[in-house]
Specification:
Helix content is 37%, strand content 14%. By secondary structure, it is α+β, with helices and mostly antiparallel strands.
Length: 241
């Protein structure tokens, strides 16, 4: 993603209507592959691409009426929602997530009726809309992005620090990618900010505590090493990870 940002190439989030098994490269954009989402097998994606064909899903009910619930299970649905794949059909991810059980139950009924040759003479040509619970708690931007990070491996549709961009500009906080460029031209120090994405606790050869911490900012990820003095001085404990 950092290289794409450098080249001003947009990486479009995975989309149930536009993405496929491979990355789709445009003139100045790359559509993220559904197969690159963690835990989503190629068989699932091939099924989605096949039933979508040249007729994109019009809404969640349309998607439900076409899928095979034996191929797409609850874990797959939740992962796709967290990755943002259903944003084109249901803009609020928490609503799509809350409807997963209803989607699969409806898909199972539809598939069973189809296999048994059962038809509803009173049914309309359009699938019955999927009902969303009325008391769904909205996800914060941080929760949405953290869920996305968990299934993609990096922040794609935004970053938790985006809300602080104006503050960082006033404080002259640099993105890591800009700091790297500055170092290449002779800079020896800079001011950075990042969210913690992982941490490994280790010991030095002398047995002192140290931690390898991976941080993320809107320009990418970077790694820092904290030794016992910094861990104690800045109270870098488990709660900070």
């Amino acid at each position: 993603k950092r290289e794409a940002d450098r080249l001003e190439i947009e990486i479009a989030p995975p989309c149930i209507n536009r993405s496929g098994a491979d990355f789709i490269v445009g003139e100045n954009s790359i559509h993220y592959s559904l197969c690159a989402i963690k835990g989503i097998g190629k068989q699932v994606i091939e099924h989605i691409v096949e039933i979508r064909s040249d007729r994109p899903f019009s809404d969640l009910a349309d998607f439900t009426s076409r899928i095979d619930p034996k191929t797409i299970n609850k874990r797959v649905m939740e992962t796709l929602v967290n990755a943002g794949a259903f944003d084109a059909l249901v803009p609020r991810r928490e609503l799509a997530f809350s409807a997963v059980d209803a989607v699969l139950a409806t898909a199972q009924r539809t598939t069973s009726d189809r296999e048994q040759g059962i038809s509803d003479m009173f049914a309309s040509n359009s699938p019955r809309p999927i009902s969303f619970p009325s008391n769904v708690k909205a996800w914060s931007e941080e929760e949405k992005l953290n869920r996305e990070f968990g299934v993609i491996g990096f922040h794609l549709s935004g970053h938790p620090l985006d809300q602080y961009i104006e503050l960082f500009e006033r404080l002259r906080v640099q993105r890591w990618v800009d700091f790297e460029r500055a170092v290449a031209t002779g800079a020896s120090a800079g001011r950075l900010a990042g969210t913690v994405t992982s941490r490994q606790d280790r010991k030095t050869r002398k047995g002192a505590a140290m931690a390898i911490i991976v941080l993320s900012d809107p320009g990418g990820g970077f790694e820092i090493v904290a030794f016992s003095e910094q861990i104690s001085k800045f109270e870098i404990g488990r709660a900070h990870v």
